[in-house]
Amino acid sequence: MKRKIVLAGAFMGMISIIFGAFGAHLLKKYLAVEELNTFEVGVRYQMYHALFLLFLSTRKDIAEKTVKTIYNLVVSGVILFSGSIYLLATKSLTLFDFKIIVFATPLGGFLLIIAWAVLFVTIFRKKS
């Protein structure tokens, strides 16, 4: 499981850097400032959670089942939250109406909050 978490964190981090560069250099020509700022939010949260997964992989005091739950919440949350933000921020470049996926952003955010809450409760309940 640890290897899988490190790989996912490294991949998400790599993709967030690629998307960040893509937004800063290529999309700048085509998107409004507000759309670029929205795109950047997706990049930022993806990177935060890539680092969160790398942190999670170092924890030896959390049960495997809990680690797996947090991992699944984070990966699903990033896909829904950042993924939907990327699509919504770039909707002016396509003909597809991405408004039908607008529910994905708050759902993804909720999953990320739950992942952090599971970590908090798990550590809080541990006796030092």
From TrEMBL:
Alphabetic keyword roster: Membrane, Transmembrane, Transmembrane helix
Topology term for the membrane: Multi-pass membrane protein
Chief place of localization: membrane
Regions crossing the membrane: 5-27, 39-58, 70-88, 100-124
Cellular compartment(s): Membrane
Signal peptide stretch: none
UniProt family annotation: Belongs to the UPF0382 family.
Protein name: DUF423 domain-containing protein
